[in-house]
Amino acid sequence: MLTAETIIQSLASGLLMGLLYGLIAVGLALIFGLMDVVNFAHGEFLMIAMYATFFLFAFFALDPLLSAPLVAAALFVFGAVVYLLIVRFAVRAKANAGMVQIFSTFGLAIVMRGLAQFFFTPDYRSVTHSWLGGKTISVAGIFLPEPQLMGAAVAIAAFGGLYFFINRTDFGRALEATREDAGAVALVGIDKNRVFALGWGLGAALVGLAGAIMAVFFYIYPDVGASFALISYVTVALGGFGSVFGAFAGGIIVGLVEAATALVLPPSLKSVGIYAVYLLVVFIRPRGLFGSM
Amino acid sequence: MTALLETRSVTQRFSGLVANSDVSISVGRGEIVGLIGPNGAGKSTLFNLIAGVFPPTEGSIWFDGEDVTRLPAAERCRRGVGRTFQVVKSFETMTVIDNVIVGSLVRTTHMREARRKAREVLAFTGLAARADVLASDLVPAEKRRLEVARALATSPKLLLLDEVLTGLTPAEAQTGVELVRRVRDTGVTVLMVEHVMEIVMPLVDRAIVLDLGKVLVEGKPADIVRNPKVISAYLGDRHAVGA
Amino acid sequence: MDEHFANRRRRDLVVAACLIAIAALAPLFVTDVFTQNVMVLTLMYAALSQSWNILSGYCGQISLGHALYFGLGAYTTALLFTKFGVLPWFGMLGGGVVSALIAMALGYPCFRLRGHYFVIATIVIAEIGLLLFQNWTWAGAALGIDIPVRHDSWLTFQFPRSKLPYFYFALALAAVAWFVTWWLEDSKWGFWWRAVKDNPEAAESLGVVVFDSKMGAAAVSAFLVAVGGGFYAQFVSYIDPESVMGFQFSLLMALPAVVGGIGTLWGPPLGAVILIPLTELTRTHMGGSGRGIDLIVYGSLIVLISLARPQGLVGLFARPRKV
């Protein structure tokens, strides 16, 4: 029954989920903005963040909220390593440059999924008790699940932090400068590789945060990254590759569209709305809503 | 006889910036015309407009008696407008001869014919020995020649040369000048943008000077170089000799 | 100089003919069903990847949504056969035509997109196709279509008792895909595609109609892939959306070309011969304890090839071109 209440309820959870999508996508946008590379293993970064959270819970009874910073830190290191071992070489390609950039990270995604299947088995895991798990608050008659609410709060905090970081700190400014002109930056003594590695680390850490929160209310299995990956590419492309703010806005749009679609179409078709919106936006504005690249 | 190329009151605006303002020029068949002017004068924009990279904000462009204003670049090439790029755009992953074959394919779909034509053009431009070399392995001067060869393979009526002689050694530049003369001798009209005065002035029949997006003056090279307006446009008013 | 080139072309043709002849004799020596199955799949993927290569390798428009056409071909054939009794031969052709038309219709808006936006659009469009078929009850929805197999017949292209006819059809398909590529390579289309891939702006200045050439590549590519899909439907006799339109298919169509040599004539078949037996073997022979190993193996291969040898493995057999 489509009442005003159901609609508002739906859109409210869509908004919360959208902020989380934004958090997942912003790392992707950051990396692309920095060096023109799309990380096609982004979904797998999310996947290992979720597994890490799960294992910290399973072996040390650490609540995801507490392990989130640890997971983010671990992902930071992982992201930097991926850059140094793989991406650094991928961007040097002269022939077939487009193919190399796409398939080098795609290949990594496949390897990561294979490793997850091998070591963790395809079984579904879940974090069975967490501090916020299963609880909901009622705000003006709308029920908001606490984990998602927390996720949204973390997302907003992360965006705020990112904004501050990029605009107010030296490293953040170096990041922006390298984004504008990697060659010139070298002349000022900034090591491009160091900046890129840290950029990848930061991007991965952000998706690590998202993964930690999502482990509270999503099942964890080797292929879990795949569906979220597509959503994040769509989110970033919608907002415009390279735009951090665009990822934020794109996430909210995607979350709302997904929720709205679920209201009118059968649940298995809920992604169709997002995909259709993506196509509509890029057909009209080939550079996305806020993109400049 | 009508001019081969005519721009009629062409104006080009880029979100607030006026790159070309009310530019009306014409190029007659068989001429070698030089398009000169200080940096930022709008020469490249005018070139792009003539080549069909984008349509002008205002005005029209006529080629061989036909209004081509709305025709895209590929169509203009078919009509007989060939061009080179200031920043060389060779097909780096293809060999020299394959680069040129792409050009000859606009006139014929028979591969043997296209290949034969390509060899002819390579011989004409002095690149025959480098036919099977990858374009990325050429030295800069050779890449310039490849630009010209490719455009020539399209059997153009009008060849637009964008700073083909800039930055070459005097010897290379002389070879380039001879090439341009030979191109004209085959019946192709040439419009060239250039910076290096000593090289260009002896070569062209006529020169058109652009400054700040407008046509400043045009005429014979000998007159142009003495024109005080031209001198002050290039060097600033302090250097202008009295009228 | 030109006979040198003509000789190379002729040599390619001769080598292909020899390989086809050798492959045609293979079933005489290979009688176990599992290996025959692998051979059929290898040939099918060689054909699919070669076709994918036309759009994404030669023309440079990387598509990761080609499973859409494969699925359309499979479904068209299966639906026409099961619902209307149309022979699969016509079904495959019909599927090919439908896919070519859809590829061009999609090309219209999509070819304006650059780089990453384009790739993601192809993924998204294939996903939409998948979701639509999963919810289309007339076409069997998520349960798919079961193609009833009666007896051996070339008419209905069904052979419950032997893999051999399928093998020969797949061989023919791979040969056709290779031959189409060989022919187009030295043609106006082939040169235009390579020019568009290398530098579209320069191509335009030389009279290349960039948009038309992309459309042509998309149509040819989609047609051949769809015929492959129709073949697959008859080969496995059961299709569902996930198995013919899923993303893993899009990836598997691209990978042989990437490993063998994207944008080359021999790359896709070489890649298929290496990758497909590898994946089939690791998947089945390792059983439960080996789950994921096939992914690890070919994922690593993709990473290594993209980083160390982006021109693919085919370059190891080619003569150096520098003078």
Your description of this structure?
The complex is a heterotrimer of chains A (293), B (243) and C (323). By secondary structure, chain A is mainly α. Helices cover 74% and strands 3% of the residues of chain A. Chain A has one domain: ABC transporter involved in vitamin B12 uptake, BtuC, CATH 1.10.3470. In chain A, α1 (4-35) runs parallel beside α5 (146-168). Chain B has a 6-stranded mixed β-sheet, with helices on both faces. A 4-stranded antiparallel β-sheet of chain B has the order 2-1-4-5, covered by helices on one side. In chain B, a hairpin with a 2-residue loop joins β1 and β2. Chain C has a domain at 38-246. Chain C contains 13 helices and 2 strands; from the N terminus they run αααααβααααβαααα. Chain C is globular, with a radius of gyration of 19 Å. By secondary structure, chain C is mainly α.
List keywords for this structure.
heterotrimer; B: 243 residues; alpha/beta; Rossmann fold; four-stranded antiparallel β-sheet; 9 helices; C: 323 residues; mainly alpha; 2 strands; globular
Write the layout of secondary structure elements.
The complex is a heterotrimer of chains A (293), B (243) and C (323).
Chain A: H1 4-35, H2 42-60, H3 64-90, H4 97-120, E1 136-139, E2 142-145, H5 146-168, H6 170-180, H7 182-187, H8 192-214, H9 224-239, H10 244-264, H11 270-284
Antiparallel strand pairs in A: 1-2
Helix pairs in contact in A: 1-5, 1-8, 1-9, 1-10, 2-3, 2-4, 2-8, 2-9, 3-8, 5-6, 5-8, 6-8, 9-10, 9-11, 10-11
Chain B: E1 5-14, E2 17-27, E3 32-36, H1 43-51, E4 58-63, E5 66-67, H2 73-79, E6 81-83, H3 96-104, H4 111-124, H5 140-153, E7 158-162, H6 170-185, E8 189-193, H7 197-200, E9 206-211, E10 214-219, H8 221-226, H9 228-235
Parallel strand pairs in B: 3-8, 3-9, 6-7, 7-8
Antiparallel strand pairs in B: 1-2, 1-4, 4-5, 9-10
Chain C: H1 2-29, H2 33-58, H3 67-84, H4 88-110, H5 115-134, E1 145-146, H6 164-185, H7 188-198, H8 200-205, H9 210-236, E2 238-239, H10 241-245, H11 247-260, H12 267-285, H13 293-308
Antiparallel strand pairs in C: 1-2
Helix pairs in contact in C: 1-6, 2-6, 2-9, 2-11, 2-12, 3-4, 3-9, 4-9, 6-9, 7-9, 11-12, 12-13
